[in-house]
Fold this protein.
Amino acid sequence: MDPILVLDKVSYQYPRSPQLVLRDISLQVGRGEFLGLIGPTGAGKSTLCLALNGIVPQFYGGRFFGRVAVAGLDSLEHPVSEMARHVGSVFQDPETQLISTSVENEIAFALENLCVPSEEIKARIPRVLAAVRLEGMERKHPHELSGGQKQRLAIAAALAMQPDLLVLDEPTSQLDPLGAQEVFAVVHELNRELGMTIVMASHAAEEMAEHADRVALLSAGRLVRIGTPAEVYGHPELLEERTLRPPQVARTFYLMQQRGVLVRDIPVRLRPALDALDTLSRDCRIDPPTTQQPPTQSGGALLSIRNLEYVYPDGTEALRDVSLDVGRGEYVLIVGQNGAGKTTLVKHFLGLLQPTSGTVAVGGTDVRQLSVSELARSIGYVAQNPNDQIFNSTVGDEVAFALRNLRCPLNEVEERTLAGLQAMGLVEQRHQHPLSLPQGDRTRIVIAAILAMRPEVLILDEPTTGQDFQGARFILDISRRLHQTGKTILVITHHLYLMPDYAGRVIVMGKGTILLDAPIRTAYHQVDLLRSTFLDPPQAVLLARHLSERVGQDIPLLTPREVADCVVCDSPEVQAP
Amino acid sequence: MSKLGLQSVGRQSLFTRLDFRSKLVMVAVISILAFVWESPIAGTALALSVITACLLAGVKWSYLKWVIQLTMPFFILLILTHGFWNTTQVKLLTSREVLRPLFTVPRNWWLIGGASMSVEGVLYAINVISKMLTLVLVVPLAVFTTDLNNMIVAMVRARLPYKLVFIFSSTLRFFPLLFEEVQSIVEAQRLRGLAVEKMGPLQRVRVYARVAVPLILGAMARSQQLEVVLQSRAFTGSPDRTYLHQSTLQSVDYAVMALSAILLVLAAALYVGWGVGKFSWLL
């Protein structure tokens, strides 16, 4: 292997950090290789990415040990501006990393800094735009691009420098499924067709297993394991003890293994998993468990929409002919592509938008008769970015803010604030500034602040975006506890694999209309419909569909455990390939 | 994009064809005239000319109306303060001992009973208002008719320091994001029971003041991320760099700059020689 990247015993400590963030990491990446970096939040993935072009330690300072070399250049001996020629970087946030006011200027920016002649810049722009499938968008403002297009533009800007190595730090974590698919497709093409060396940090287990040549698992700054996707993801216990999520196919076959089915090699990609399932379904009994549909809503509709149409002031038709009832105590999942109208829909319940035509009622009252603040007493809304919902100087004040607006007596404010803090495990942080706490804690602060109003309905809009698996589960577990106390829950998310344990009903939206409104077991198995709106069903559902076709019986399973449980091998000799 | 964001006109005109440097010269001359002229007639004519030019260039009337509506409270305040109380300066400018009363407040009114609004005071207020309007509206005339990239290159060619130009372009890039953040935070406050719609102006100001801290902290976090991005794009702040776009002055640019200079000289001569543009001109 001809290594383009060499890390030799790299350790690093940020200036004000009490401990090392990277610990004794040694690895090599060959030219043309795709290395995936995985690990829980705080494992050191982003710091490692920043070390590859010298930003760590040259920009941040701190204590750095060991050696990083890219194309033979030591990251300590060459300035970042020189390292930038060899290492292209793409970051997590699509908004912050685009600095120019047009697509072509964004690509040109680094080249201008490197004093590349304008003729050469003009020649490179169409080439890199073609590589990321953004042809013809030269004059567009980054503001006009979708999230996926923005990330592809950032990749194009990095590619324009013709680097030896492309480093991507969680480039899809803030994107919708279509955007994520676009980015993975482009990165895959660059790697396979142009031979670009890739280092990519990501929580997207299924995609990493599909595209990476090797995967490096980081935990608490250490390199715990490095190997092919099968060598890393094929050991779900290794990942789960570090609160990471393996691909669903790997978890499914791991659970089968635990139940005594002899699975020689746990598949980590979908195609081999389907082949293995074929073998098992031939030699074993498929005994699907009896599945129960969630109980249908009792009582009248709490939220009701009739023939809703909404047109934005610029003329964009966001919703058309939407009719919907949500009953008291339901847990509803709303899914769909960005621009499908999900957030526009729920903003009507909150009074933030008024229907162009049609009616929206909450508890039987037309929302036109209620102000936003009045509606907020019965409907709590947690938006995606907690930072935009925090505006007080202590955690306690943040939670108490709504109660003061509701003119609650002082002792009640104190009592409900304390209850909210306790429910979210934030009592110890009550005197701290909310923005001094980690992102996960900030989301909990916002939820505590909303819950203090004791709303009957809670709407969570993309609560899992930007969270790792543990963080996402933590928030959803809160929603389940609230649901169990009788609250009505609406969740908007792109992460379908997270929701079978929580939601009972799914509303699929596309192009401003409701494409499907069905119980989760029905909705998740409408594979073609979901794919038509760029939603990929969880791998466990695809395995269940495959089994259904094999045995000629509908098997509406949703989770790896359900699929694993329905394969019963009486003979211990039976082996999956 | 919000009204506070950068807009661009959809129509091709003389203004869109001009180089930003020639527009800067034109803006400078118009601004000097607006500052110097005290005549409400000349000032109003100048403001109306700028409004007409804006409309001809394709700046939307809805935008102009929004600007005028936004500044209207200040204009009313100016008319009241100058009309009632700016007597000394106006007497000096008109060389009159007594000002012509427009109307007088009845004597039995509390605090302001007996106060008289003068014709000259109101005319002076009109002059100040026209100055403000000219200065405010000449900016979109130049900025909205210029492609931002050309603006940046033109500023560099005009020998402005590159770091300054970069700060300017970054501000234009990130300002809409900042404005969206403000809206999100105010929305979050409303969703926590804050009845903004029932508040008076002072209470609303307090709501916006509360937005400042998270906004500044957010901007600081973003600026650090931005620094990392800039480093990874080989940015050093050095003016020693190349540019994708070039900026060259055409004959029409030279013509506009020459006409602007002639207008300035002519206005200065008329002002000094014949009092054209002075407060008392044609009054």
